[in-house]
Amino acid sequence: MQWIADQDKIRTLAGHNGLMEIFSSGAISGMELRRYSDGEAICSVGDRLEHMFILVEGRLKIHTLLPNGKSLLVRFARPMSVIGDVELLRQYPVKNEVVSMGESLLLAAGRALVLREFEENTALLRFLVGELSHKMYTLGQTTALNLLYPLENRFASYLLSLFADSGGQRVEEIRTSTLAELADMLGTSYRHLNRIVRRFVEEGIVERKKGSLSVLDRDKLVQLANGNLYE
Whole-angstrom Cα distance, residue 85 to residue 161? Predict the structure, then answer.
């Protein structure tokens, strides 16, 4: 993680993401800008947070760790997602792993700063209520997806969630070397996931080449996902 001491960049990112209408100018000036590299954790299970994070560039993967050591995908986070709002305000320990996918930029607001804003900033309160509502809605959706849907539907939803940010057909995050990790996150075995990948290849939904997958038939993925995304 790298701290970026650049107030002009902080104000620019805040402006591009609409934060000037949510936080006071003093609060924006009091925030830190942090850069995280690919695979770096923003927070881990058991952490006690002293900052609330706002994603302004990049993408995050949020997954929960199970008692048996496996993990289960919760959702992807995109700008303007908030990380640590519940944990920070209620001082709960972190329950999920939050990891950067590629490089990401986050603004960090300290607990004292956030509590001061709450005193008279109704725009911030409305914003955080909206964030909490979104999290509750998507948590119910992804829980049902993980528990009730067959693997082919979950895998299609995962691919579509990545596709939404890729800007094209290539899905570089799915590499042969990461299928075992992905199988854990989708609540299945590597062997079962590999069978689904082979079937998707045979049906012309994806192409497997040089250790990565390309989406060939997005419409078929949409049909399989049935409106469910990890977001």
Answer: 23
Identity of residue 53: F
Considering the four listed CATH numbers 1.10.3470.10, 3.30.470.20, 3.40.920.10, 2.60.120.10, the one that applies to the domain covering 2-144 is: 2.60.120.10
* pLDDT tens digits, one per residue of 153-196: 999 998 888 766 544 444 444 554 578 888 888 889 989 999 99
This prediction has a pTM of 0.83
Tokens in use for 73?
A: 């995908």
Structural contact between residues 163 and 218, judged by C-beta atoms closer than 8 angstroms: yes
Q: Which amino acid is at 220?
A: K
Class of domain 149-225: mainly alpha
Assign 3-state DSSP to the chain and report helix, strand, coil percentages, each to 5: 45, 30, 25
Residue 88: phi and psi, rounded to 5, are: -70, -50
- Structure tokens given for 88: 């920070």
